[in-house]
Amino acid sequence: MDFDGNNKKKAFLILSSKFYEHFDEAIILAETAGYEIVGFKKFRGGRRITDNLIEIIKNNKKDLEFDTVIYYGDIEPSSVFKLEKETKIRVLDRVQLILEIFAQHAGSKEALLQIEMARIKHDLPIIREYIRRTKLGELAGFLGPGKYGIDTYKKQLTSRLAKIKGELEQLRKTEQERLMRRKELGMISIPIVGYASAGKTSLFNLITGESKPVGPEYFTTLFPKHKMIKYDGLKLAFADTVGFIRDVPPEVIEAFYSTLEEVTISDIIVFVIDITESEKDIKEKILAGTDILKKLNAINKPIVFVLNKIDEIKSDEISNKTESIKKSFPFINKIIPISAKKNIGIDELLKEIIGISRKIKVYV
């Protein structure tokens, strides 16, 4: 963790009990969003904060001079109100942090609309709480335009939300038509999925010859990148997708439906896993990732599990982890060890994809 002075916004991180084991993820997400974590505190509570936690934040504020509190977890609107009123500091929860990152990477009209919709849906309960508090005479004056202004603001957001939904519905119809045309042209749709930093984009670049940006940051790929290649007489349409995260917030799943729809209407799914991680983390991510695929009604599609970064660990560790995964997840039919960085195992992966394609009778 870098505590040196820089141009990043300074933030104090509160790690709720639900995410105690996800400290590294919280730090990476915060840094990706442009925050320097100057201090942190583990909080045994969940959605509702305590007076003791507020005092801890106040005391740290004097020494660390941060202007944002990142609450890495789910927090009740009443607690957001209380925390901001007592500390005079902006509060971001986990969903808002993720949406800030999405906003930084948004490029298309659809992306911007999806992000705006997600933010409105997430913020409305907080705004309702502020309205309720104004009626009790508890409005934190530094936060809003006043009693009547915030009520008007809520009405504007509700109206805007309805308009965004209509625009997105039309854009989704257009995208679905495009994806269906690809199928009609005999293309095999193959989204590459997996958790952030597993190497999805590196694999996509290697297979397709593209040079999309890669990096250790989360969400270097926010919306699907597509490229079709011809291999062994078939047209393979690969898509590099947004990285999974643990406990994907419902607002994010709905807001980025068009990104995830790539998986829903796919023919074959390639699930990339970072084999350098601990067995515990690998198994947790497989479990959570397959749960996401279930929610998308995509779990019954052919899935090829790929263990990436084998060049970074010893061969016996590769074997041990592979066998452990097979024992824990008997539904996994095929596991292919690869290195996208060193171009190892890619031919075997492509042959597996071709074999599945023949079986499902998708031809040019």
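Above is the first protein from milestone M3; the second protein from the same milestone is given next.
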Amino acid sequence: MADTFDLTVIGSGPGGYVAAIRAAQLGMKVAVVEKWPTFGGTCLNIGCIPSKALLHASELFEEAGHQFRQFGIDVTPQLNLKQMLAHKDDTVTANVSGIEFLFKKNKITTFRGTGSIPAEGKVLVTPESGAPTTIETKNILIATGSVPISLPGIEIDENKVVSSTGALAFQEVPKRLLVIGGGIIGLELGSVWGRLGAKVQVVEFLDRILPGLDSEAARQTQRNLTKQGMEFKLSTKVTAIEKQGDGSVRARLEPAGGGEATFAEADAVLVAVGRKPFTEGLGLEGAGVALDERGRVRTDQQFRTNVPGIYAIGDVVAGAMLAHKAMDEGHAVAEIIAGQQPHVNYGTIPSVMYTSPEVAWVGKSEDELKAAGIEYKAGKFPFTANGRAKAMLATQGYVKILADVATDRVLGAQIIAKNAGEMIHEIVVLMEFSGSAEDLGRTTHAHPTLSEAVKEAALMCGDGAIHI
């Protein structure tokens, strides 16, 4: 008789691999099913990690060409795209190899192939070649993530018309790049190729970029990116793309509300209009696992589906499609299966966009607080008044903290700055403990640091900052 596992995880992305490792730490016998040659899912292989490698490298290239002279460093940078892409690939290899090491360290059994659920307590693994294997398991975790959304009538060939995957692997810098979608993925990857020499135009169906972000922060971010050479065409949709004989592409643009069409010529098009849950081939209908109206797996507050012993987390369930959200859910679901009582506080999950400057936010935006009728006060401090930012030539942006008028409890925050993604976490921790703006304003911050702007913004919620 085959061994029975305590937990079988389908998918080894951030949510899946964290759940597997945590379950193994808690003494469970764990199996992971992965159809890709390497572990780590979209994030490590074709998402978060490789994109950040290119974002960092392209930002250094931009700084070398434009800012170094102000620091007294005279150089003329030359782009070696082949080496930049090799750095990206090396970064991916190091990270996915790390997951493989952790699986071995924690004695996690791996199965290569596509996982499906033929019945409760069983996972069928179908490899690319060879006979399928059936795993007997007490619990099943669906952690299959998401895939890019395509547009009707527009074929993604990952050559001239690409998803985020293809945009990470251009072998030469496109002279003209058309980005469909003004969300995080489109703006990050658009900024990479813009720094390396592409003329980037962003087409967004809505009348603003970055829906969900505080509207003031979104406007400031658009201004920053416009100064960097990025063009924006809002309230516009792309209805067709034609490949031209000279290797270029021609996109048909129409006003979102209807009207006369115009055309845009480009050398490549990035389709970045969002992602959707990936449930294809899982056999969920046969297993009786319920989906919601958007194709996401329905779960309760303990990540349980309607079928006993089957759980789901990450991009395949409701909520923000963020790797760290999936990781927290993976950590929690393993502890729940082990009989513990963890929780995930969705009100304090931060978001970060890794453009230059970075944009980070957590909690409620001003738009959300106004819509909910919550009385709040806003403390805002610009980096033009921060000594470290001046020394680094990094004065773009600000910190804005939103606090409840009656209790002073911090309800949300936005940071636009170099290293904003690192600075947001002190506000996350404060909010996790229901802290006030006064608590933050009275906390000592090292001088000189960019993080002093967080303290000053908190003071702005009271009697006022010191340095403005």
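Note on the second protein: The chain has 14 helices and 22 strands.
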